Amino acid sequence: MSPVLNLSSVTVRRGRKLLLDDVDFRIEDGERWVILGPNGAGKTTLLQIAAARMFPTAGSAEILGETLGGVDVFELRPRIGLCSNSVAHTLPGRETSLNVVVTAAYGVTGRWREEYERQDERRAFQLLNDWGVGTVFDRPFATLSEGERKRVQIARALMTDPELLLLDEPGAGLDLAGREALVARTAALVQGAFAPATVLVTHHLEEIPPGFTHVLLLRDGQVVSAGPLAETLTSENLSTTFDMPLELTEREGRYSAFMKS
Ligand SMILES: Nc1ncnc2c1ncn2[C@@H]1O[C@H](COP(=O)(O)OP(=O)(O)OP(=O)(O)O)[C@@H](O)[C@H]1O
Predict the structure, then answer these.
(1) Which CATH number goes with the domain that contains 180?
(2) What range does the domain containing 113 cover?
(3) Domain count within the chain
(4) Residue 204 in contact with ligand 1 by CB distance below 6 A
(5) What's the whole-model pTM score?
């Protein structure tokens, strides 16, 4: 079985800047990865490549068995669920939450035809309910709170029943209760029987849901360490990644880190 994602010596260059520098990253079916790293480390760039939204300057990217550059990305993208600010900015604020979700089934952002299949609408509504935002289904996207918007975006990312789910800082801007609800829902999602391979980019260890299996630590566009969470998420690796002495704590499958005093 081919890997879900196989990045081999991927480099992304913009002018003189190396956004990613010779990155290898392989995801097998059933794995759930967290990506951690300081601001500017290249996390979003890596996710954009995994989402078939950006091409490497050098190296190769194989996504769901297809090689980037040798496949029609418009056929590949519906197989990948992406929740990211880069997508959020393209969503028309006047569209209702339901339309924001249902239009993902057609690979568009705005409602462009009047009659959607009833079953698509039912699925979109179910996803909004699953993520606790069923009550705002008829509200324009622009009028939603940050937390509601995040959950609508996750519902949108799941609409096509993706084989690979990419979540770029889904917890950003959420209050404490919103974050905990998001962590619980994401944990339930990834531990479900038909869960897609998932990648979560976050700045905060508290946002790692139980059930995630692997971690990739990035710094200055390079991989510091990558592997099973239990072995790779260590105080030492975190300290190297963030260039600061950090102490990792773990309690019942949840993590946090503080500067060593
Ligand atoms: N077009 C570009 N030209 C030059 N530099 C760029 C360009 N796009 C991104 N960068 C830089 O590449 C680096 C990596 O950006 P990226 O958004 O991938 O980082 P990140 O790890 O997601 O950061 P953050 O945690 O702040 O969101 C940053 O320093 C950014 O300023």
Answers:
(1) 3.40.50.300
(2) 5-259
(3) 1
(4) no
(5) 0.93
